[in-house]
Task: structure prediction
Amino acid sequence: MKIAAILPTWVGDTCMATPTLRAIFEHSEVEELLLVGRHAPVELLRGASFAQNLIKFKPQSRTPGTLGRRELIRTLKARGLDAIVLFPNSLSSAIIAFLAGIPKRIGYIRDCRGLFLTDGLSMNHRETDSVTGESKIVSWKDRPLVEYYSQLAAPLHCIPQDLKMEIGRSAEDDVFAADCYRQLGLDPNAPTVVLNNGSATAVSRLWSTEYCAILAHELANRNVQVIVHSGPNERLEANEIASAADHPLVQSMGHIDPLPISLSRGVIGRAELVITTDSGVRHMATALGRKTIVLYGPTSQFQTKTHHNQETGISAHLPCQPCGKSVCPLKHNRCMSDIKPERVLQAALMQLQVKNPRDAHTMAA
Result:
């Protein structure tokens, strides 16, 4: 079988789709797996074992090497595909698959697109309660996203048993990372923590600049290098954190240009520990097998479960959590502000196994 998959839009969601992509690729009847997605998800997966055929796509694209909607339909039609798996829930992705004439079109029945699917999956399924033995209807949208995606492989008879996430690394990643360390004046052989306070979709997930700076400064005082992660649109915030930390061992990726995703992969991939908000960087770190501390605010620890045994979650455990909102509806954002740097420092020192650390409660305000 020749199979295509349209990737999720976001980096974190793409990471959580990797167990399903891997299972499809390793299925004995699959001859070819073609992955279609926007720039960031495609570059994220470049080098992964299952990502041997990649197509960049953006509606109404005029960028060389990136197909627009009509070009993509023509390309898919010419490939002689047997099936396509739609990770996005959008109506447009189903219409593309339909117009490309792909015989088997797999996706969840959402957003009025069921007519365009041959193998539409219901959002609801029946489960038996392990305690009471009662049968009940459960929605897949209430399950961890990695499990939600795994059901897309059911019509192909290859639901993944291994839900560990995976992204590739390349020699280019290491070159970018080595150059980053050189430009920032850091030792590539010294213990390094990557600190990420970004979120592509919600300001409510962000920790305060002050808390980030306090944490970074205290880690640096223990001879731990800290690289403040930055994407192309996060330079100002990352640079502010490093500046406020006021320590030579705390440096910001915001000073590096350009900031390709391969640089993020390289820097995250060599870190001893990644401390991050619930964002794409968190899922990249998990997929790269890094020790990770995740600061949970409005998002659900259950729905973003990653099956990574080296991940530590920290939450304020407020009654209003998780609200899932991009802006705090109560206007206080305490789910993030109540997570104090002392608590995160203690968790970090345990992960790093720092010997005879100073008492975390002596941190400067």
Remarks:
- The chain has two domains: 2-156, 171-362.
- The CA atoms of residues 199 and 279 lie 5 Å apart.
- Confidence is low (pLDDT under 50) at residues 359-365.
- Residues 11-26 form the longest helix (16 residues).
